[in-house]
Structures are given as structure tokens and as C-alpha cells.
Task: inverse folding
């Protein structure tokens, strides 16, 4: 038979499959045969990002399950703050009998919210809130062959709830096993599956081990086996992949989508095949050294998706799913149109982390670069705007207006403490220049070394023509502690220190 190269492109894929911060994945198949990936984004709004793929390797960000973090004033930054709150370790599935998508997640360790949509692209609406104290912590939804809906959930002690026929309330819940059953102090990251008449629960001991549990009934008893144990990451200096979800490809093969802790970028998705043993348990397929391989045979033929890096000219009337606000925005203080994004000051404050309407964009790859073109001619006295390497340890380049003086400044080390997330420092100005352009249009750039094995350096530069850039100040060392959970992002902010009324116009943003 004549040999061709038609399948050469499909020989292997490379990990990570997405070099961006998409943690706590729940991957499932939609009614169209495509694959859908629900992720965490904590206090960023809109919540619960949704990705789509035709091949399990090439993904695109298409929307969010939670249109607004409508969970109380602190999510608006109007009465408290919700850093590290919001949407985390939730679940999303399509249910054929109702033609609905369901998203289920616990917020603030107290309420479980259920959102539904006829189309995965939305509109998504809040369909139910379970009674206070009903927290489906780290939950996974299974829609059984008879259309019964089960949710596995829990931290340390794991339970299963059966939902009502419409999936919007709880019928009953039962404890099924505990971390002590495998000799551990904690267990989380629960997902639930059914294969060949058997029920499976996937979860993990935080930091290292993934367990798989098997039973003939959703209510148990369950027996367990280790799927992966402190396996070496395919990303240099990354943490052991140990949490995620299982998915069967259309070819019949099974895969484990996990993530590796790789700050300052964040928790980034990695994929590996699994097999099934004679004992009806899945087993992990490592590389020759016993680690999570940087490359595996591709599950399916590749399907084209939009590039993760691109230039956004804001030529529509809404923001793309790549943009998420730090907490819910004041919608009266921004507009999106053919002229770009107008960001009016929404908060009078000297506290960077208390300022509303900071617009964020995930960083991508090992050496992400974000370039912002902005018209700042409508700034008011006392306003502060800029482009940040944004996290619980932040640095930025931006313009400070004081009276008639405009100063281009680089500020390092704006910090939060790791409990109530109160601001502990508004940072230090480490470099300035007063050479701002007379036409009030600037290009600001943040260039990062986001490798877990890198320098963690964030360098800032500016340009008056968009071509030649001048570095301002020295590098800032980004923070890699895990407590904030989310990785670094590019952040575009504009706030007032004296009175509201000023604005800036974001004309374009390039992620590279």
C-alpha cells in the first residue's frame, strides 16, 4: 500500500495542552460530539470559564457558565472583598433528556448554585440555590443511564447526593468513604463516572496522589486504587499532576486531563492516556522514566482553533471571553465599541486591590508579553492607570496624574496578606519619567518570564510610536506561592484617588 503523510501531524501532542491557568478541569462530551472543559477562575468575573475542543488537545475559550458573581456585595468590591472566593472545583454536564447544560458549584463554603443553559454559549441563568449549609465541595456530576443525576462531593469525607428529576434540588445524600480509608488526612477534587455498569469516583490527596474508586452501586461500597502517585510533571519544575477528570475520546481511548502547579503562570492543563486493567481499574501510562510524558500519541485528528495569542482591537460591542474582571465590574463605568474599551474611574481609593473595574487577561506560554495601546487624554487629577503583572504580589507600569503633571511610573510590590486578603502594601515607585507624549497616546508593555523553572522576572517598557520600546526600571520578581491559587495575569486598571470623572480608552491589546 502506498504510504502517505496524512497522519504525520497526528503522531504526537505536546504537554501542556494549554499553557495558561485553567485549573480544576471537568471535561465532558457535548451533544455535538465535541469536548467541553469547565474550569475555575475564583474571584474573576464572569465566572467558570468554558473551553471547547474537537481533539482533546487544541482548545479555545468560548464563554462562561456564571455570567456574574451574584453572590453578595463583596464580589462587587463594595462591602469587603472576595479574593480567592467565587467559582472553584465545580462541574458541568449536558443532559440529553432536558436539552440543558448544568453547572453546579459551591460558593463561600456555604451555598451550592446551579446554573443552566440551552446552549453552552449561553445565556446561562441561575436556576437554583440549595439551602444554606449545603456545600457540594469539589463536586462532580454524573447523569446515569436512567437519567438519574448524582453529585459526588466533599473534602476528607466524601458523599454522594441524588438530585430531583429536574436536577434543581437534592433528594438525598449519603456519606460513602473518607480519606482515612486510604490512610490520608485529606481528599478532594471529586469526579464521578460510569463504565460497563460500574461506578467510578476520581479524586486526590492534595499535592501528590490521584485515587480511583470503584463500585457496583453509586452508593457503594467503594474500593480504591492509586492512579498516579507523585508523578513527575512534564513542565520543568512543575508540581506533580494529581487532580482533574477522565474523558473517553470518540475513538474509544480514555484520557486523564490533569494540571500541574507551575507558578507564576498558574495551574496549567496536561493530558495523558490511561488504560484499563483486568481488575476494571484504569491505569496511568507514563513515559520511560515513569513520569508524565511531555509527549504522547494524539487522541484524534487535530481541529483548528483560534490562536491563544492575538491582538484584540475591541471591534465589537462586548468583550471576548478572554477578558475577565477582578470581581464584578461597575457596568456603568465602562463601554465597548468601535473606538475600544473606555474605562472610567469606578472607585476613589489609594488601595490598588480595592479599585473596581480592573480588567484582566491570562498570560500564555513561557515568556508572555502583553502590549497595551491607550489614550489617556481624559485622565482626571489624582487618577492612576496602567498595565500590571497582576496577582497578590503586583507590579505595574502606568501614568499618574497629579494636577497638570503626568508621570509615567513603574511600581513594584503591591501586596496582600493570605487570609482576608487585605492590602499590606501599595507598593514602591522604583522608576519614573515625565516624557509622556503630547498626543496622550502610549503603548505600555509587560514582558514576563513565567516559567516555573525561570527567573520569574517581569519587565516593563513603553513606547510613543508602538515600534520602539524603552524599558523603565528593573525587573520585578513575581510571586510563586500557591495560596492565591490563580496565576499571574495582565491587568488593566484605572482608578481615582481624588474624585470620579476621568477615563482612559484602551485602543488595542496584544498578547504574545
Result:
Amino acid at each position: 500500500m502506498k504510504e502517505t503523510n496524512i497522519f504525520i501531524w497526528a503522531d504526537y501532542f505536546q504537554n501542556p495542552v494549554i499553557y495558561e491557568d485553567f485549573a480544576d478541569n471537568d471535561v465532558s462530551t457535548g451533544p455535538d460530539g465535541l469536548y467541553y472543559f469547565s474550569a475555575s477562575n475564583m474571584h474573576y468575573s464572569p465566572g467558570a470559564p468554558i473551553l471547547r475542543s474537537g481533539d482533546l488537545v487544541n482548545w479555545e475559550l468560548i464563554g462562561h457558565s456564571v455570567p456574574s458573581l451574584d453572590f453578595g456585595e463583596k464580589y462587587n468590591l463594595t462591602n469587603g472583598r472576595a479574593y480567592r472566593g467565587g467559582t472553584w472545583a465545580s462541574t458541568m454536564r449536558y443532559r440529553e433528556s432536558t436539552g440543558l447544560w448544568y453547572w453546579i458549584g459551591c460558593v463561600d463554603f456555604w451555598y451550592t448554585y446551579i446554573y443552566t443553559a440551552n446552549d453552552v454559549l449561553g445565556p446561562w441563568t441561575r436556576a437554583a440555590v440549595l439551602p444554606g449549609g449545603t456545600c457540594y465541595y469539589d463536586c462532580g456530576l454524573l447523569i446515569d443511564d436512567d437519567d438519574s443525576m448524582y453529585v459526588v462531593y466533599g473534602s476528607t469525607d466524601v458523599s454522594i447526593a441524588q438530585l430531583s428529576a429536574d436536577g434543581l434540588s437534592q433528594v438525598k445524600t449519603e456519606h460513602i468513604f473518607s480519606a482515612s480509608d486510604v490512610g490520608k488526612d485529606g481528599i478532594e477534587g471529586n469526579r464521578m463516572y460510569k463504565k460497563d455498569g460500574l461506578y467510578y469516583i476520581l479524586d486526590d490527596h492534595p499535592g501528590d496522589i490521584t485515587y480511583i474508586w470503584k463500585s457496583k452501586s453509586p452508593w457503594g461500597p467503594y474500593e480504591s486504587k492509586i492512579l498516579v502517585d507523585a508523578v513527575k510533571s512534564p513542565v520543568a519544575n512543575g508540581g506533580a499532576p494529581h487532580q482533574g477528570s477522565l474523558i473517553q475520546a470518540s475513538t474509544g481511548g480514555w484520557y486523564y486531563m490533569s494540571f500541574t502547579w507551575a507558578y507564576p503562570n498558574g495551574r496549567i492543563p496536561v493530558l495523558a492516556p490511561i488504560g484499563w486493567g483486568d481488575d476494571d481499574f484504569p491505569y496511568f501510562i507514563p513515559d520511560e522514566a515513569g513520569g508524565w510524558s511531555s509527549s504522547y500519541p494524539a487522541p484524534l485528528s487535530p481541529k483548528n482553533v483560534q490562536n491563544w495569542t492575538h491582538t484584540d482591537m475591541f471591534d465589537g460591542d462586548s468583550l471576548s471571553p478572554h477578558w475577565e474582571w477582578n470581581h464584578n465590574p461597575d457596568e456603568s463605568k465602562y463601554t465597548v465599541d468601535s473606538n475600544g474599551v473606555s474605562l472610567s474611574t469606578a472607585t476613589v481609593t489609594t488601595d490598588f486591590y480595592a479599585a473596581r473595574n480592573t480588567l484582566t487577561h491570562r498570560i500564555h506560554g513561557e515568556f508572555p508579553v502583553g502590549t497595551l495601546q491607550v489614550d489617556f487624554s481624559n485622565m482626571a487629577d489624582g487618577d492612576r492607570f496602567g498595565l500590571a503583572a497582576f496577582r497578590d504580589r503586583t507590579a505595574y507600569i502606568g501614568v499618574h496624574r497629579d494636577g497638570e503633571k503626568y508621570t509615567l511610573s513603574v511600581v513594584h510590590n503591591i501586596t496582600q496578606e493570605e487570609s482576608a486578603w487585605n492590602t499590606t502594601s501599595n507598593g514602591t515607585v522604583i522608576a519614573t519619567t515625565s516624557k509622556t507624549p503630547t498626543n496622550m497616546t502610549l503603548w505600555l508593555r509587560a514582558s514576563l518570564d513565567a516559567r516555573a523553572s525561570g527567573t520569574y522576572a517581569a519587565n516593563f517598557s513603553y513606547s510613543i510610536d508602538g515600534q520602539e520600546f524603552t524599558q523603565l526600571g528593573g525587573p520585578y520578581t513575581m510571586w510563586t506561592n500557591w495560596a492565591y491559587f490563580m496565576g499571574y495575569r495582565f491587568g488593566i486598571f484605572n482608578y481615582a484617588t481624588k474624585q470620579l470623572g476621568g477615563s482612559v480608552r484602551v485602543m488595542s491589546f496584544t498578547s504574545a
Remarks:
- The longest strand covers residues 405-416.
- The radius of gyration is 23 Å.
- The domain at 29-230+241-247 is CATH 2.115.10.20 (Tachylectin-2; Chain A).
- Residues 389 and 490 are 5 Å apart (CA to CA).
